[in-house]
Amino acid sequence: MQYILAINPGSTSTKVALYQGEEEYKVKTLRHSIEELQQFQTEEEQLKFRKEKVVEFLKEEKIDISSLAIVMARGGLSKPIESGVYLVDENLLHDLKETPRKHASNWAAKIAFDIASEAKVNAYIADPVVVDELSDIARMSGHPKFPRVSVFHALNQKAVGRTYAEKLGKKYEDLNLIITHMGGGVSVGAHLKGKVVDVNQALDGDGPFSPERSGSLPVGDIIRAAFSGAYTQQEMISMVVGKGGMSAYLNTIDAKAVEEAAQAGSEAELKVMEAMIYQIAKSINSMVVPLQNKVDAVILTGGMAYGKWFTGKITEYVNHIADVEIFPGEDEMWALALNANQVINNKITPKEYGYTEF
Questions:
Q1: What is the dihedral of CA 52, 54, 57, 63, to 10 degrees?
Q2: Are residues 206 and 274 both part of a single domain?
Q3: Residue 353 maps to a domain
Q4: Nearest residue to 17 (alpha-carbon basis) of 336, 354, 268, 310
Q5: Whether 112 and 261 share a structural domain
Q6: 47 and 35 share a domain?
Q7: What is the pTM of this model?
Q8: What does the entry give for GO biological process (predicted)?
Q9: What is the tens place of the pLDDT at every residue in 249-303?
Q10: Local structure of 217: helix, strand or coil
Q11: Any idea what the CATH number is for the domain that residue 86 is in?
């Protein structure tokens, strides 16, 4: 029996999953205490520790490393690349190590590469957050020093788009879709015949506010606050990512609890939820333009898409555009397995990551 192994590191955990085809065999989150992680002096030491934990997981499941057919890793913050599945090679590993944008996801490819090498199979990444298919016109921001960049929930958006197309018996590349991922951050993508030609920078840029991100803010006020002397750079960054949005208004990032309170009539929670719904719906409507007024479906996905009241309110704002489809959840492991199966079944050809200087 051949298995797909998927690896997704977080700051204090490493999520691992085994699949047989598209069927989930085992998913587990390997927790790492702060005390465990603080003992490591270098990144290499921590990577070795995390790899050993993944190997221990395989042994616990009585999975011999020789039974792995492919190893999938969550993509990190490398240079911008087009959508697809990429072979993990020395060029990719170099850029993930040298990138100035640090994130735990940068480690996934190295862990996967080492395990795959021992198993004598290939390791791949798929649709990392740096997938960049923006049209030239969408890239212009209003000032040449600050071009718009593409950082969004590409893995989930692309997987959901392909799943929806398959449901219709069509190809993802033949459809025009507006796909909105709603989790800790919110990204709204215009999928034009398989290319995300416009999307808000969901990490720390523009778009709707979310449970922990501020989204678009008045730029002048931000500049004045940054130079007022009242805040450090890190405090300003935290206002935008981590402690913005719902967190800033209500001191919580628990969207489910806030939705329940709003439904129960709590004025503060209702006001914030209605504002977030309004901003998301406004962003969805704006994506009609890059799709040239031809939209096959509006899709809502991510953790917040489980909220029926929440998605119902958004639907009321946007169902004039096209039918609204809801794919709740943000299962990155399933999305990685979906891409792995496309490689195994020769439905897609993996790409090579080219080397260029940062």
A1: -100
A2: yes
A3: no
A4: 336
A5: no
A6: yes
A7: 0.90
A8: acetate metabolic process
A9: 999 999 999 999 999 999 999 999 999 999 999 999 999 999 999 999 999 999 9
A10: coil
A11: 3.30.420.40
